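My current task is to audit a protein record that another person submitted. I have pasted the whole thing underneath without changing anything:
***
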Amino acid sequence: MPKYHFSYQNSLSHFLNVRVEINGLTDSAKLQLPVWRPGRYEVQNFPKRIKSFKVTNSEGKQLLYKKTSKSCWEVELNGSHGIIVEYEYFAGLMDAGNSWLDDEQLYINPINCCIFETSQMNEEVELTFHLPDNYRLASGLKPKGQHKLSAKSYYQLVDSPIFASASIRTISYKVNETDFFIHIQGEITQSDDELIEDFAPFTQKQLEVMGGFPCKHYHFLIQSLPYKAYHGVEHWNSTVICLGPSADMVKRELYKELLGVSSHELFHTWNVIRLRPKEMTPYNFQGENYHETGFVTEGVTTYYGDLFLIRSGVYSFDEYLSELNKLLKRHYENEGRKNYSVAESSFDLWLDGYEAGIPGRKVSIYNEGALAALILDLSIRLKFD
């Protein structure tokens, strides 16, 4: 069972100490840090945030290793069956897909900073956090005691972000047999009752349409930031959402964005997390996972995320039309629609999918995929309703 330990000396430096205990090895060890992360189909280069990397055996003797690629290390075991890997990781990027450490919280996306041994990806994993006593953890992972969590496999570990703080605000509600939790780090104006009044209806509608829910519990992990931000990432039984500025949450426009991205990410629990392109089944973290159906995973999710909000009464009809108009406006303003298909743009996510790119080269799989879903939905309704 791989065991991960997380600690730090100076939170304001953003450097997180990571210690990994790996046993059951034979001739050699191949260590890997993922090349990419679920929800972001581009090479991430996480190792550039690592320093002070070393490997020892269980007796503390330093072992030789060599890098075979930018994110892979091969270790000479010299008869050892267990190793300890230690390094510092710079947790200084605050968004929904990275990690952050300061004097108020530790926020980890394990896929950024958790090295794995390539033969042990399906083994159970244990995590221990060395934190102030008043900190508590928020995550979709199973608690194993104070400041301890476990994952069924490396795949589950890296699909399970973690908040650790003394100031997490947690709200819960239940839909059918599933417990839902809203964990908020930072300030949000809305009361617990107001949040439940909006989150529960779109959750109920999604479960009703999809015929149940694949998880026993689900966690909305929200970073409410004091500056402008908008980002969400889907996970196995959770999502991280970064939104700001928090002072504007009192305004309907930003609060509506929170509801929109929350509904979008919840629908990902089915679309892409479990209904996944065959090219990503299982995830290959050692290289790009090329696929032409990103417009289905993201575009259909964009369409249904908003549709569930109006069907549950959370959005007004005018608010829903406003979202559709935004899609149409972006479509007609982008000359890339004349040059590149949604399938081609899906494949090239790994090339330039998350940057502006050259003028008129490509389309957004979110925007064009949502319009394709709208056209397909309306066509079916016109024919069969």
